[in-house]
Automatic annotation (TrEMBL):
Protein name, as recorded: Amino acid transporter transmembrane domain-containing protein
Residues of the Amino acid transporter transmembrane domain: 284-610
InterPro entries reported in the protein's UniProt record: AA_transpt_TM
Record PANTHER family: AMINO ACID TRANSPORTER TRANSMEMBRANE DOMAIN-CONTAINING PROTEIN, TRANSMEMBRANE PROTEIN 104-RELATED
Chief subcellular location: membrane
Region spans: Disordered: 16-53, 219-247
Highest taxon above the source species: Eukaryota
Species lineage: Eukaryota, Sar, Stramenopiles, Ochrophyta, Bacillariophyta
Length: 644
């Protein structure tokens, strides 16, 4: 049967060669030069398939992804940072901020590792895969392909007599033959140097079968006798450059050979698990690794509280800022102006929340630049703004000193106000799956999110210390509101350009956060709506996610309640304080549990526990400590807030 199979494949290859009317070298060069193709012998098996040509990765660059992450984390939360620094003390709040950012980086690592493991361990139906690469003779690192080959035997070493074959001996020892890059073969030999690069193959069932395209290692069977090995110094592949072959020799002697190419060190390193093209929301990861009751439902409960409080804060920021910058009613009715702008805000953001958001990269980068500009203006005009506030309040130069309203350096009794806000301002982890999904090179995710954490911590510390020191206890809970009276002093005698600059800075600082939350509100509402829909439909989520009526219902459920709450309660510090308590569980407890459970699950199912994102923080002891830290801080801060 081997002779017949080889003859059929040879006839097929000769027919193709005659049809093309090309020399073997021309055929080889044509195949090699064709886009997306790899060189192979024309006599190769029809089962041979070239490796698919990988397109260049498309998606966000690291800089664009960084801007998106900054737009998530550097939202309205940074406006409450100066107030939090004053409440907790400038130095003590700075130390807390550094600790929170360090732990935030730990959590980022835990989520990326869990997502990478889920990519490998789960199929598209969210069911467990079986790791076939471990414990089998041929792993995915070996490329096994079938092809006939001409082999002229120059010498043969017989390790057993012919009688062994009659007695049913099955095992064959196959010698290794290296193939050059052009497809030709080198002399077969027993050198130890080759054994360091390649391993011999034993196949008790079929006496030879495979050749690798484009280079590899050949182990040729010296006939069909067991216990024999063949040395083939001139192995010819029909149609291969330099070895045109001979039909008569093919008819005289044919054999099948087996090739196994060992994985290089670069291939071995590439097996570290990466985040893939599928997007796993955190509540889906909780369902898989923590269970439906404890994981899915409990996480979605805390996520709902957190996002509702975030959207609540956005409503308060927009209505408060616009009612003071552009009051509709001139009778000085603050409640009427606030309610009017809250209704306008609802008219703008609720329809956007019901739509599928297709953001432009240029717009996101532009908004990032506007945030940087706002932080710069607030810091470098804070001293003059404080004087303007004093003038507006009728405080003269001799009526008070800086010590009367100076912010404390340490205030442990106010940390229960400071810590939740600092945590709230550094939270973006629930959006990591959505931020990571469009990034082109998933290997850059660790660096992108780490740069985001470092930059935000520096910006928060800079603005918190500067504005907290300048304004002291007079700082508003939303710091941009202090710029309402900016430029009120010494207007007489100033040039028109200076007056225009003061008015422009005041208007920009007051109104930009309000304009910015119009785009931030739908992002968070869509996230919450999708998570609520995923909890409701579970595995059937893919069947209903295209149903616009169902999607709109959950988007309305996510967007309308926080606007109503924003109308009733307007103190931004109180809102972010309670939202920050839920952030302890969201940020520290659940990601730590996901890391622990996914790692143990990977080990139990014989997957690698090391991923591409593994760092020094990838330790179960750290994860357990972080988990209990989140629970403890949630209980402690919530108790203090309730007690007032």
């Amino acid at each position: 049967w081997r002779e017949k199979l080889s003859a059929l494949l040879l006839a097929h290859s000769n027919e193709k060669a005659r049809a093309r009317k090309q020399s073997p070298s021309t055929v080889a060069s044509t195949i090699a030069d064709s886009p997306g193709a790899e060189f192979r012998s024309p006599a190769a098996s029809p089962h041979w398939k070239p490796l698919a040509q990988k397109d260049e990765p498309s998606g966000f660059s690291p800089f664009v992804a960084f801007c998106f992450a900054i737009n998530y984390i550097l939202g309205t939360g940074f406006l409450t940072i100066p107030w939090a620094f004053v409440q907790g003390g400038l130095i003590s709040s700075t130390l807390i901020l550094i600790l929170v950012c360090l732990l935030s980086d730990f959590v980022k690592t835990y989520l990326l590792e869990t997502m990478a493991r889920a990519e490998v361990m789960l199929d598209n139906q969210m069911r467990w895969r079986v790791n076939k690469s471990k414990g089998e003779e041929h792993s995915e690192k070996d490329r096994l392909l079938y092809s006939p080959v001409l082999a002229r035997t120059m010498s043969m070493e017989r390790g057993a007599g012919e009688g062994d074959e009659e007695e049913g001996g099955q095992e064959e020892k196959m010698q290794l033959v290296p193939i050059n890059e052009k497809g030709g073969s080198k002399a077969m030999h027993h050198s130890n140097s080759m054994n360091t690069m390649y391993s011999s193959i034993q196949n008790p069932m079929v006496p030879g079968k495979v050749i690798a395209p484009g280079g590899g290692v050949i182990a040729g069977a010296g006939g069909s006798r067991p216990g024999t090995a063949s040395h083939t110094p001139n192995t010819s592949l029909p149609g291969t450059p330099g070895t045109p072959g001979d039909a008569r020799r093919l008819a005289q002697k044919r054999t099948l050979i087996v090739v196994k190419k060992k994985a290089s060190s670069s291939q071995s390193s590439s097996t570290k698990y990466l985040v893939g093209e599928r997007k796993f929301e955190i509540n889906a990861l909780c369902r898989v690794f923590l269970g439906k009751r404890f994981g899915l439902h409990l996480y979605t409960f805390f996520l709902s509280i957190y996002v509702y409080c975030t959207l609540w804060a956005y409503t308060s920021v927009f209505a408060s800022a616009m009612s003071k910058a552009l009051p509709v009613f001139d009778n000085g009715d603050p409640d009427g102006n606030y309610l009017w702008y809250a209704v306008i805000f609802a008219v703008l953001v609720v329809p956007l929340s019901c739509m599928e958001l297709n953001e432009q990269v240029a717009m996101q980068v532009f908004l990032t630049g506007c945030r940087f500009l706002m932080v710069f203006l607030m810091v470098f005009t804070s001293a003059e703004c404080a004087q303007s506030n004093d003038a507006a309040a009728g405080i003269g130069e001799g009526e008070g000193s800086h010590d009367d309203y100076a912010a404390p350096l340490f205030n442990l009794s106010g940390l229960h106000h400071s810590i939740p806000i600092l945590v709230f301002a550094t939270i973006y982890h629930h959006s990591i799956p959505g931020l990571a999904h469009p990034v082109a090179d998933k290997r850059e995710l660790n660096g992108i999110f780490r740069a985001t954490t470092i930059f935000s911590s520096i910006a928060y510390g800079f603005i918190g210390i500067t504005l907290g020191y300048v304004f002291g206890t007079r700082i508003a809970d939303s710091a941009n509101l202090n710029w309402k009276d900016f430029g009120i002093i010494e207007r007489e005698g100033r040039s028109d350009a200076m007056l225009w600059f003061a008015d422009s800075v005041s208007f920009f600082v007051l109104c930009f956060p309000a304009i910015d939350v119009v785009s931030a509100f739908p992002l968070n509402a869509i996230t919450l709506g999708n998570n609520l829909m995923g909890m409701a439909f579970g595995r059937k989520i893919h069947e209903v996610e295209k149903n616009r009526l169902v999607v709109i219902q959950f988007r309305l459920l996510a967007s309308i309640p926080p606007i109503l709450l924003g109308i009733l309660v307007r103190e931004l510090g109180t809102i972010t304080g309670y939202a920050g308590t839920t952030a302890f569980i969201m940020t520290f407890t659940f990601p730590s549990l996901l890391y622990i459970r996914s790692r143990r699950k990977a080990i139990a199912k014989k997957f690698d526990s090391i991923t591409y994102y593994t760092t020094f923080a990838s330790n179960e002891i750290y994860a357990i400590a972080l988990c209990w830290f989140g629970i403890g801080m949630f209980v402690f801060v919530t108790t203090l807030l309730i007690r007032g």
